[in-house]
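ugh ok fine here u go
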Amino acid sequence: MSGEGIFPPIIDVAALRKAKDWSTYDLARYLGCNQSTAWRMENGGNISGPVLELLQKLREEVELDELKARHAAAKAARVSA
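structure:
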């Protein structure tokens, strides 16, 4: 284990997909699974192994994108003030 404790981190798969403006098909392609598997993961299905690692990477990417957007908005607000 990589320091995650007994339970894996909770990942809101649907929120990640929507943040990337992806369809379920796009998410399935990213994860290397079929659409029905991606749908099940969005709706509480089991997530483990390499798919969990990919979702954790995706979550980090989405969080970084959100941080960059907030930084850009704050910079724009300072410039226009």
